[in-house]
Amino acid sequence: MSVSLALIPIALTLRAVMGKDQFHNWVDSMQVKVETSFENEQDLLQTLQSAGYDAQEFGGSIKTHLNGENQFFFWERIDGKWHAIFEKGNSEKDIQQFMQDLEHHSQRKIFTGEYTPTVLEKEPAHVFPTNFRDGNILTRTLKEFGVNTIQGNNGDISCTVQGTHLTFRQNGESPFSVEIKNAPSLQDIYMYISDVDDEYKRCVQALVYEKLKQRAAEKNLSVESEEVLEDNSIVITLNIQG
Fold this sequence. Notes:
This protein has helices spanning 10-18, 20-29, 41-50, 92-106, 135-144, 186-218; strands at residues 31-35, 56-58, 61-65, 72-78, 81-87, 126-129, 150-151, 157-161, 164-169, 177-181, 221-228, 234-240. The protein folds into two domains: 4-120, 2-Layer Sandwich (TATA-Binding Protein), CATH 3.30.310; 126-240, TATA-Binding Protein, CATH 3.30.310. It is α+β, with helices and mostly antiparallel strands. A hairpin with a 2-residue loop joins strand 8 (157-161) and strand 9 (164-169). It starts with 9 loop residues before the first helix and ends with a strand.
């Protein structure tokens, strides 16, 4: 299984919530694996580099960029053979061009497995869990990202990001799940939600901070000092007023 989704922090949350086996099956459903004729890792690396492509070691796999920094895929050894692991969100045109270019430069047949474009047809919707628990904070966070949200009578929070429709739903006290529709690139949406996740945590921290100062004042305590640590957490020292 490719580790590409593990590059995105929210994937760690998905694995924890969905369970190892279910997460692995979900990741596999997002990928297209194409068998190759590379004899060993050295053959793979030399072929890529001679054709002008990068080959970066990452988490036991090899990462190669297709077109700039935003689109990439991985190479993995599966059942003794090297495979190219493409995300379904990658551009079909760029993948086809890459495969033709690599075989042209190496003057040999590399991709022995079949790459079928129809495999990359987008599913109507993808749903996965998030860390978000407070709808008001989530709405505030999305607005700070410049996104207009619509809240339904059932509590659903909907918005559109770069043509992709996102719907956040909550069942009782459980965290929200997010439904993704019409995403031209799931990878870009994962990264976007990861950024929202980081900002959401900062909003929660800010609210806790303000409530703490308010309660301290009510209990006749004053703030002596505040220190922001490297992980952006805040240490507050309180004084008891005599």
